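User: Hi! I'm working on a homework problem where we have to compare a predicted structure to a textbook description. Could you give me the structure for the chain below?
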Amino acid sequence: MGQLTLEQFSELEGRFEAGTASEADLAALEPYRAKRAILVASGFGSRMLPLTINTPKPLIRVRGRRIIETILDALLAIDITEIYIVVGYLADEFELLKKDYPTITLIKNDQYDSTNNLSSAVCAKEHFENAYVFESDLFLKNPALLKKYSYESFYLGVPVDATPDWCFDTTDEGIITDLHKGGTNCHHMYGVSYWTQEDGARLAIDLPKAFADEANRQRFWDDVPCALARDNYQIRIAPCTFDDIDELDSLAELQHADPAYLIKK
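Assistant: Happy to help. Predicted structure tokens:
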């Protein structure tokens, strides 16, 4: 990845985090700097009805904060201001974010209601280089998970003995070999990933290529680098814990995260 070895990168990143990096150090780190982000926020959120009848799921408040704001604030904290939000359902509602986050750009996915989120990734295909990519129903409790510099492409995942949810298989060295629903001795998937300049350029080609096949229209975009075109990528798992992120996919999960949504009898 680039001209630095992993050992050299780690040394320079350590200096940066310690506040002792020189101008030459920062110049050497520049190819590894996270420069932009894509937030996929186009879905209907049917499992969170009736709350999503008038409000897109990412804009629902949890303990006073909109879900998506936990991601936006973490991005700004590492100086990422080039932020693309792919919208679809109730797209105009996301305009209100521009008051507090004026650097965001909304990208409209007109196929959000007839395809899975692969179509949203295709809409943003030109922006994957040096980019974080997020599902927008994640309440990010540990913003320190996001780093200003990254050496490799990665997904966040929690090591588990078994899970019925989406998960990654990995090598002993932590390289992702497959993505599927349900597994053992795997990593529970979180929809947070980072893509290097090289891998982002590959995705700009592989995403629309996969979407052109009608058989893939209902697939998740992550299937492209992790399954359909996995030979084109070497993606590492970045371990995290269940305490770092709340994945708010349903009303029950929202009620667990914020008891204010419990129905009082």
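For your comparison, note the following. The first strand starts at residue 36 and ends at 41. The radius of gyration is 18 Å. Good luck with the assignment!
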